[in-house]
Design brief:
The complex is a heterodimer of chains A (312) and B (274).
Chain A: E1 15-17, E2 20-22, E3 26-28, E4 51-52, E5 69-72, E6 75-78, H1 86-98, E7 105-109, H2 114-125, E8 132-136, H3 153-166, E9 171-175, H4 182-191, E10 196-199, E11 203-205, E12 208-209, E13 214-215, E14 222-225, H5 230-243, E15 248-251, H6 257-265, E16 270-273, H7 275-279, H8 283-297
Parallel strand pairs in A: 3-16, 4-7, 7-8, 8-9, 9-10, 10-15, 15-16
Antiparallel strand pairs in A: 1-2, 5-6, 6-14, 11-14, 12-13
Chain B: E1 10-22, E2 26-33, E3 45-49, E4 60-63, E5 66-69, E6 74-81, H1 85-92, E7 98-105, E8 117-123, H2 127-138, E9 144-150, H3 159-163, E10 169-174, E11 181-182, H4 186-192, E12 200-205, H5 208-221, E13 224-228, E14 244-247, E15 250-253, E16 260-262
Parallel strand pairs in B: 8-9, 8-12, 9-10, 10-11, 12-13
Antiparallel strand pairs in B: 1-2, 1-7, 2-6, 3-4, 3-7, 5-6, 13-16, 14-15
The chains are: A alpha/beta (312), B alpha/beta (274).
Chain lengths: 312, 274
């Protein structure tokens, strides 16, 4: 039985994601929580397992033309276009605020070439208050005709390899579910030393307005998130978890503690919450409370007992 | 951030106190909160969500049309047109139904400098944030002209409320001529063009072509002009970057740096809007 049901730290919820020790497995998904400061008055950031920032690039990125968002059946289609303040402004104006919190800061980042990924990673790892780096590989490789870095075994292996060699911080590789064999891609990341894998990114998708015959988002296509993609994410996490030993951070449509537990059951060690933060900014706090109560009510002493407990 | 934004938003559970259909497509919701929020400045908005609603995954942003605060709780009025699944669901909710409110959000309309006369230009549902502005400005300004236009008489949903206000000049247009002058509301502005000798401030909200015409007029006249910009939003607090508008200083977030902008700032684009 947990000794302090509503205490500040619940040892029963803590998990390890590589070298990172998290007080609980719940963190925001990159791009849905801004730089943390936007939500600081609405949710206690210190309750979170970790804080994950918006994706950072070397130079500021303006993003896609509006409209940038459309709600679909059970989902949200976004075409934000990786709009971000860039590394310099992040370091000077955004990171100092995040240093006030005890939750480890995971900085999501991306580049347009492998050299750029390395440069961003090196510069981020030199900053105080960054606990880990999450590489978003769902970006077009401009040197390889725009094919996504995360789409082949070779490119995932190559990028993971150079990142591991370049920085000492834990490297988490964030992958897309849109590959022919997620097990193979996950093995590529693990084989080159990734500390963890985040699965899945938003699913490439489209919505159109029949009357005007125009796409409903400015980028023509976008990324689908929300409950609509949860079954896709669960399968990807389950498959990857069956192939690799490194921890997997599950993400895709998690709205409540039961969704979070489903991801843990198929093998995720931690979870990220995205679209649900928009619906209810307290979602992550409610998930953490829900997990505590669930463990208590079911006589489960350690959340880790649930990880990978799927019965076939 | 913004000098007109008032404090931090709060996320509260509320319930529907009144739900009124106005004609076939408009609706007014009064939502009561058991906790006081505010102060609220005309032009600020709220995100309204319904827990567990599969037809409305994301909250919907609405201008705060009316507001009261009695010390023990707050009441928020929203006036909206039913345009999609989310607004249809909200319009179907019965009195007593729970809703969640994130408010107050965004900046509000700035007050005019002393001695100015104000033109308030509303197109269709653009009246929603402008009505509380009329009430606020009436206390301090001697000259307020409200120019209110819509497609047809039944689209002038706020007309009875406006007619109840003494001491303002109210001019109406409808595109089909069923009430007031036939045509677009912006034509009234052009008629006013040369009459005034005092300094003018314009406040506008409505369809983008209307707002753009008002902006052009203000530029030509070198008048102060504040416009309320509408965008689809997911978070309402500046995190998701869905609601950006192009300005002379790059993309800005309508939810945080807006929804009220100096008309001078907005960069209009012919293809996709700003």
């Amino acid at each position: 039985m947990p000794k302090r049901l509503y205490g500040e730290t619940m040892s029963v919820l803590n998990v390890h994601v590589g070298r990172l020790e998290l007080q609980n497995p719940v963190m925001p998904a990159a791009g849905t929580f801004g730089y943390g400061e936007e939500y600081a008055s609405l949710i206690d950031l210190d309750r979170l397992g970790a804080i994950v920032t918006k994706g950072i690039s070397l130079a500021p990125q303006e993003g896609n033309p509006p409209p940038r968002m459309w709600e679909t059946c059970g989902g949200m289609l976004n075409s934000i276009g990786l709009h971000n303040v860039g590394l310099e402004v992040f370091a000077q104006e955004k990171l100092p605020f995040l240093r006030r919190f005890k939750a480890p800061v995971i900085v999501n980042f991306f580049g347009h070439t492998i050299d750029e990924y390395v440069e961003v990673a090196e510069k981020l790892s030199a900053l105080t208050g960054v606990a880990a780096l999450e590489a978003n590989l769902s970006c077009p490789n401009i040197k390889e005709g725009g094919i996504h870095f995360g789409s082949t075994y070779t490119s995932v292996a190559e990028i993971t390899n150079v990142l591991i060699k370049s920085v000492k911080l834990p490297i988490i590789i964030k992958l897309s579910s849109q590959v022919s064999d997620i097990k193979e891609i996950a093995l590529a990341a693990e084989g080159e030393g990734a500390e963890a894998i985040t699965l899945i990114n938003s699913v490439p998708a489209m919505a159109i307005d029949l009357d005007s015959r125009r796409p409903l988002v400015g980028g023509v296509t976008g990324g689908l998130s929300g409950p609509a993609i949860k079954p896709i994410a669960l399968k990807a996490v389950w498959e990857a978890a069956s192939a690799v030993r490194i921890p997997i951070i599950g993400v895709g449509g998690i709205t409540n503690y039961r969704d979070a537990l489903e991801f843990l059951t198929v093998g995720a060690t931690a979870v990220q919450v995205g679209t649900a933060n928009f619906t209810n900014p307290r979602t992550m706090a409610e998930i953490i409370e829900g997990l505590e109560i669930f463990l208590h009510n079911n006589g489960i002493e350690d959340l880790k007992e649930i990880i990978g407990s799927l019965k076939l | 951030m913004n000098d007109r934004a008032m404090g931090n938003p709060v996320y509260l559970k509320g319930e529907i106190r009144e739900s009124t259909s106005i004609g076939s497509v408009y609706h007014r919701l009064r939502i009561s909160l058991t906790q006081s929020i505010g102060p609220i400045i005309p032009g600020q908005f709220a995100m309204v969500s319904v827990e567990g609603a599969s037809d409305m995954l994301l909250p919907r942003p609405f201008s705060i049309h009316n507001f009261d605060n009695d010390g023990e709780g707050s009441g928020l009025d929203f006036l909206f047109k039913v345009v999609g699944k989310g607004t249809a669901l909200l319009a179907r909710l019965t009195v007593g139904s729970p809703v969640n409110i994130l408010a107050p959000l965004g900046n509000g309309f700035p007050d005019p400098p002393a001695g100015y006369r104000a033109f308030i230009i509303a197109g269709g549902m653009g009246i929603a944030p402008l009505f509380p502005l009329v009430l606020r400005l009436k206390a301090s300004l001697s000259s307020i002209s409200v120019l209110y236009g819509a497609k047809s008489q039944e689209d002038l949903v706020c007309l009875p409320e406006l007619l109840d206000i003494d001491g303002i000049t109210l001019n109406i247009t409808t595109e089909d001529g069923t009430r007031g002058e036939q045509g677009l509301v912006t034509q009234l502005l052009k008629q006013e063009k040369d009459k005034s000798e005092t300094e003018t401030i314009l406040y506008a909200c409505g369809p983008e072509p209307m707002v753009r015409t008002v902006t052009d007029f203000a530029r030509e006249r070198k008048a102060l002009c504040w416009v309320s910009i509408e965008r689809r939003m997911a978070c309402g607090v500046g995190a998701c970057l869905s609601c950006v508008v192009m300005t002379s200083d790059g993309y800005k977030r309508v939810c945080c740096e807006g929804p009220i902008f100096d008309a001078e700032e907005i960069v209009w684009r012919d293809d996709v809007g700003p």
